[in-house]
Amino acid sequence: MRIVCIGGGPAGLYLGLLMKRRHPEHIITVVERNKPYDTFGWGVVFSDAMMQAMRIADPESATEIEDAFNHWDDIELVFKGTRQRTSGHGFIGIGRKHLLNILQRRCEALGVELVFERDVESDLEFPDADLIVACDGVNSRIRARYAEEFQPDMVIRPNRYIWLGTKKPFDAFTFDFQKTEHGWFQAHIYKFDAETSTFIVETTEDAYNAHGLGDLDQQGSIEFCEKIFAETLDGAELLTNARHLRGSAWLNFSRLICGKWSVFNGRSHVVLMGDAAHTAHFAIGSGTKLALDDAIELANQFDRHGHGRDGIGAVLEAYEEVRRVDVARIQNAARNAMEWFEVVGHRYADTLEPPQFFYSMLTRSQRISHENLRLRDRTWLEGFERWFAARAGIAVKDGERVPPPMLTPHRVRGLSLANRIMVSPMAMYSAQDGLINDFHIAHLGARAMGGAGLIFAEMTCVSPDARITPGCLGLWNDAQAAQWRRLVDLIHSLGHAKVGIQLGHAGRKGSTKLAWEGIDQPLETGNWPLISASALAYLPHGQLPRAMDSKDMDRVRDDFIAATHRAATAGVEWLELHCAHGYLLSSFLSPLTNRRTDEYGGSHENRARFPLEVFRAMRAVWPSDRPMSVRLSCHDWTEGGNTPADAAIFAAMFKEAGADVIDCSSGQVWKEERPIYGRLFQTPFADLIRNEVGIETIAVGAISEADHANSILAAGRADLCAIARPHLADPAWTLHEAARIGITAVSWPKQYLAAKGQYETNLARAAAAASAQ
């Protein structure tokens, strides 16, 4: 085949040498606009896994690259007058110029033609090529030419950064955070040869503008950064080798995703690689890794399908299918890390203490978890756990195992929880006339013995017409209150768990079948009238609610007040108001479901008016020493609906009204929603509200392991974790997860103590067997 790689970066050079090495008959040309053995940039970072892949792909270049690497294990944080360090992270760095020079020499040795100082405008300049590889960077001209086919999605991110270097060598990957009168600046620093380090400075657009950095030339920007980071530089100068950039050299990162990676131009196949196809933020240092992995996979697919012209189309399809998955995974982690740095100043640096800030930074991509940190640096993590436990009032003696964050106590108002795990409200649809029955006693009693600190029953309705289904719990009469007292007494008799109740009104989502008979489907008989913020049915064929008038609002408010009285009398210790998931109060908050033109519609203040009236009325009669939380849908996942920014506005309003905690869920407001699921996918909402609004939060959604909960709590992303489906599968989830991570100093019900030792022993044996394999 005749192959032309447009762009002489890592992707083009590595593909050229791999293809020539595996099939010397190929005629391969790499075209580069720069001069021979000349490039811009400082150091790049690799992982040990990347090097292993390169050893397999081309041992010769891998050996030379490894010989040039600088390896370090430590990460150091400079923050608020402190220096903190942790080890075991395994980074390797090399100068970008050195890396490219090694690959260039390897290409020449194998017979790949290198053409320098040629600026390619179009793929049509190579009409005899069978395959044209467009690896010409994020501003690819080839991709732009076929934009309709490639479907590029380019987002310019808000932060500014400048890529510099220094002759001062650093022995750790160093992060330095410095606050100015206009905001925070952070430096990402790592050594890549014996005497030189990369020094990337990043800040927000607001700080950039406030300091007038756009008016400076490159030297002015360098001098500005030298002043801010003078202590860390310790007299060393900052340098640039990017004089080709105009102005101050401050850039915005461009996040790129393409809908398709290859086209046929009528004569040649054209495929994207590296930054021309996708970008990953430097916060996790994966841009070069992605480019090299692209080259390895494309060469591997030619090996599988054959190195002939006729199979190019199949090769490119397979290449894209495989790489798209890994690229999405890396981009997701890079997005998490990037977004952390974009909001780090006001969300974390201003609010978190240095130890927790360091933990948050280390886990910013969500690829590194609590137990992963233990594997990397047990001493550091146990010191952090000791610090976290001390803040929760636990004094741990020397030599004792420190409890992980999820097993530390937590106090809200006058209520003390034994730990930070709660059984989330989950609809069981098993009541008759709203009454707790033997099923609920058995169901919630079992979970009360399972170790969680707080037990919630399902959403409990404040009137018969507030129910979702005929099987929902209620608290609109004294008989129901008596059964709640029975449940509270039972839970208190079984151990340390406290009892919470979530009061709600189904609104437009009411009068439906039991979930297993057709979730959200309207009842065929026995319907009751529905009310909502506006006359909008939840389903096209669903029952149409009536838009509430002032009498309806007065009646519903009074129903919530009466239920609150009954809950307090029954001994319930935590009260939550349900303002999420499209139910009645949620329907006022969302612009999708609130189309009112009176004082209860329109602005955030108007849409929140009725939910706040209800909340304040409840707070007024709820005992002052008992906490109240509000469950919010923090994202409607639908265009035109509420976003996390809107949720933060509402959270601030409820905080001002006396809420202690925001329970951060999302969705179920609009049937055509398009949520983006994933591990801990709703935790960012709790993080934003906790650290920007300044109110405690509960994280919910796809939290299924102790490792998840500990990571969330340790990083300060939430104060409690609500576990739903895992508690359905395992009533003793908290006890079992504690045992799984080696925590034995946890009380089990005395009736079950005979099983505790055996359970822990079996886990230890299974772990030992797995490690021996």
Automatic annotation (TrEMBL):
This is Bifunctional salicylyl-CoA 5-hydroxylase/oxidoreductase. InterPro entries: Aldolase_TIM, FAD-bd, FAD/NAD-bd_sf, OxRdtase_FMN_N, YqjM-like. Residues 128-327 form the FAD-binding domain. GO terms for molecular function: FAD binding; FMN binding; NADP binding; NADPH dehydrogenase activity. It comes from the Bacteria. Residues 408-734 form the NADH:flavin oxidoreductase/NADH oxidase N-terminal domain. CDD domains: OYE_YqiM_FMN.
